[in-house]
Amino acid sequence: xxxxxxxxxxxxxxxxxxxxxxxxxxxxxxxxxxxxxxxxxxxxxxxxxxxxxxxxxxxxxxxxxxxxxxxxxxxxxxxxxxxxxxxxxxxxxxxxxxxxxxxxxxxxxxxxxxxxxxxxxxxxxxxxxxxxxxxxxxxxxxxxxxxxxxxxxxxxxxxxxxxxxxxxxxxxxxxxxxxxxxxxxxxxxxxxxxxxxxxxxxxxxxxxxxxxxxxxxxxxxxxxxxxxxxxxxxxxxxxxxxxxxxxxxxxxxxxxxxxxxxxxxxxxxxxxxxxxxxxxxxxxxxxxxxxxxxxxxxxxxxxxxxxxxxxxxxxxxxxxxxxxxxxxxxxxxxxxxxxxxxxxxxxxxxx
Length: 351
Description:
Elements: H1 17-23, E1 33-41, E2 55-64, E3 75-81, H2 89-100, E4 104-109, H3 128-143, E5 148-158, H4 162-167, H5 171-177, E6 187-190, E7 196-197, E8 208-213, H6 221-234, E9 240-245, E10 265-266, E11 277-281, E12 284-287, E13 292-294, H7 299-306, E14 314-315, H8 319-338
Parallel strand pairs: 3-4, 3-5, 5-6, 6-8, 7-11, 8-9
Antiparallel strand pairs: 1-2, 2-4, 10-14, 11-12, 12-13
């Protein structure tokens, strides 16, 4: 699709990142198993705290099993949550990586069955609460799969899906969405939006890894620094690691060859970088910049007041940051789901 410059990488100008990712996305693995998940559509996180809220929703997923699993053996698994442009190259790249480590992957499609193509201009089209409900629906289904070790199921999310992967580490949301004793064994969030504060931020205790770009104006890393500090203060024993890569922008790790040819790509859409939701009373939320109370019914209006296009928002690939992020992720996931890594373990981040 692109011609490689002879001497240096150059910006591509006014291209829309979402269209680029969709047009150049890698194909999904041919041997994936199609699954359907019993989830719910929720307008906002306040509905998670009230039993029976939301609308029942079937959600599609793609289950990819590692090769060479002995008959009768149980394998660990990762639930994967996509970004705001939907499933694509990033999901399939990481799915293949996890499969190569002997880990099954259930990649959840939170958009398709809801009739949504992307959320880049309307973040309320599919809420983080709905995606978190999808994540727990995936956990519940995997936990009953005889091929999966129910005690070794982790979660990973990117951008739009990263906040739900992170929020799923709080006890309050697990208690509202998990079936029985089901819980995630590890949480990995690539550049999540961290604009929230809760009265009760008690964690399940599972390890958490947050990976952000220091130049990210879409999901500002500073908000995640603040959240990580609060989580550590409220949960002193929580194994939480946060890494912020000063040269990386949004999607700093995106596994696509065009990042070898260009320096950066603009990110278009209504960006909620000024939004911050604070729980002011149990299950009561206020968006701080507008002082508007936020519920499932008012979320779209609240986001319209604190979101705006940002001409300086860019996806900036950071190869060094990517190598470090993949190394941290591999160490954490191997220790959490597979046991200590072998001496010969390596991470291929060469693209």
